[in-house]
Design a protein that fits this description.
The protein is of the alpha/beta class. It folds into 2 domains: 140 residues, ATPase, nucleotide binding domain (Nucleotidyltransferase, domain 5, 2-Layer Sandwich); 189 residues, ATPase, nucleotide binding domain (Nucleotidyltransferase, domain 5), CATH 3.30.420. It is built from 15 helices and 14 strands. The protein is globular, with a radius of gyration of 21 Å.
Amino acid sequence: MTGARQLLVTNLGSTSLKFRLYEMPSERVLASGGFERIGSDLASWKITLGDGPEKSGTGNATTHEEAIRFVDQELGGLGHLAAVGFKPVMAKGVSGTQFLDERTLAAMEEFSPMSPAHNPPYINGVRLFQKLYPGLPCIGTFETAFYDHIPAPSRRFPIPLEWEEKFGIKRLGFHGASHRFVSERMRELRGSNKLRLVSCHLGGSSSMAAVKDGLAIDSSWGMTPQSGLPQTNRSGDFDCFAMMYLAKECGLGWDAVEKILATESGLKGMSGLPSGDMRDLRAAANAGNENARAAIAVFVTAIRRFLGQFYVGLNGLDAFVFTGGIGENNPDLRAEICANLDCLGIELSPEANAACRATEAVISSPSSKVEVRVIPANEEIIIARNAWQLLQNQKSQAAA
């Protein structure tokens, strides 16, 4: 198989690199794996080639460049690929699927202050691939892309018109690849796009999307990834005047408040635990920690609040889908979210819900008017499909 039909999809973090290598357009996974804790003494890697056994080890990556070179060696070279696909978060005035050229990277840099944990690692990663493999196309589908055509009432903030027109202040939406995969998979399962769907992505960061006939009509996000549902260590929605009070009247200062809301808040901040990981919260709550129990309850309440909002906006509901690491692996949390929602037509099957962990399954009872499902996340295939389509469009235009 020639590299011209192979596409590497990467997921970049400040200390991580994950990847899947696809054969296109068959979408066969040729390899997968990645690095965790790059730059630390605990750096580790794992790689699986095709259907073979997983290989793993420690070390080999004090920098992202060393990690990429190691993957290059394990996969027999990356420079001959058709493209590298990325999942960038946001950019000023740019969305959809784009070649990540200097114009697009500059637009991402302009929005780095609003996405400090996401944009810089992606910008640096793209530039690193460009340095190591000159001429290899780098293509990104922005997380905002799924919401590019969201209706104005769900997009606009109640702010001066000048702020929207001059500075671009509006709701954008993220986790687009995840919610798009859920909507496309539900279309396959139902055999139709005529569907009122709420997609609930719960993970290290969490969000919900209301989808009607395959198109997003609302989102739990605001303009930045610091908004919406409570996140692992980010606040989610928070009163802007309370932030000003903390910064000005309480003397914390803007930089300190920004840092605390972005890194020491959310589930971590509410619980008082060193980590906002749901597994740690659940263990602490089961051991009697009231703050951990309260953090979980706030998380559940926020999800239910958006579910009710979306139910009204959709004028009913056909399907409610859990995805993401937390959503796929936590039957207890799913049960708490869906408890006493028979008023919305949602009834779980306790047995089906308890048995489902990280597998695709229906977890609603036969009498439930709304189908409740778990669909494991697959953002990578959406990135691969979009990148491949952009390449084919480019070829068609060149041949015209």
